[in-house]
Amino acid sequence: MSTTSTLNAASSADRGPPAWTRWLDLGDRALAVVLLAPAAILLALIIVYPVLRLGYTSFFSLSLTSGLPAEFVGLENYSLMLEDPVFWETTWNTVLITLITVPGALLVGLALALLANLPFGVQWPVRLSLLIPWALPLSFAGLIFAWFFHSEYGVVNDVLNRLGFEGIIWFNSPNWAFAAICLTIIWKTSSFMALIILAGLQTIPRSLYEAADVDGAGRVRQFFEITLPLLKPSIVVALIFRTITALQTFDIPYMMTGGGPGTSTATLAMYIHQNTVSFLDLGYGSALAVVMFALSMCVTAVYLRAIRTKE
């Protein structure tokens, strides 16, 4: 019995560890591939495949209202887009909203973050006030500010009347309607910028400010030479996320004006929604969505390239 057991043990030792444990001996690169594979497969299913499918559909004439089967038309949807005045108007509105609201939200968010970072005795009310606008649904914010800017019983016109100014019919004028939408978006998104910047402020060592005080540097100099440079990574992250969401603006203008007067406040996302959901023109709507996706990727690439250049 003992001789047989000894031989079996020796035979097992020669065979080495069980096959199912060999993955533990993988190199760092192979182990990283194994661990990242599930996440990569999930991303491929929920991101890569829909984008590829979207691009594929954009080459077809596919309208659910026509009752005709999908027909391959190549770049015809894109050529129609170039001749579509509504496409150019909604694209310009989207770019203009981005150019106005992203810097505006950054400046307001930076001020709010600096305020929330002050050494208050009780800090939770200040930080809670930053969370409320961010947590509010976009469509709900649009409805609230549509009431604020209402020409007859809105809060804004009531304040103007009390100050001796004449009320404004906000949503009958393209310029005033656009201004109201931009103000609403800045209010809604500045809290998101503030939360990211506040997280960056928390990482700045207090010893840097103490050393600057010893050297005689004032608050303004400390801000531009310590705070702002060390906040650059946080600001860039906030700008990337805010710019992408600005290019996809839909809820607030949809709830406030519905794109009116006419299409003067309509965005590219609203035009995509109109073609795909209202008109059921999936081919042309997919082409519009591809353009918006490409625009978002180009903006992200510009930000990332700027970061690498500065480094």
From TrEMBL:
Belongs to the binding-protein-dependent transport system permease family. The chain crosses the membrane at residues 30-52, 95-116, 128-149, 176-201, 284-304. It comes from Shinella granuli. PANTHER family: BLR7065 PROTEIN, INTEGRAL MEMBRANE SUGAR TRANSPORT PROTEIN. GO terms for biological process: transmembrane transport. It is a multi-pass membrane protein. This is Carbohydrate ABC transporter membrane protein 1 (CUT1 family). It is found in: Cell membrane. One of its GO terms (cellular component) is plasma membrane. It comes from the Bacteria. The keyword Cell membrane applies. Keywords: Cell membrane, Membrane, Transmembrane, Transmembrane helix, Transport. InterPro entries: MetI-like, MetI-like_sf. Its main location: membrane. Residues 91-303 form the ABC transmembrane type-1 domain.
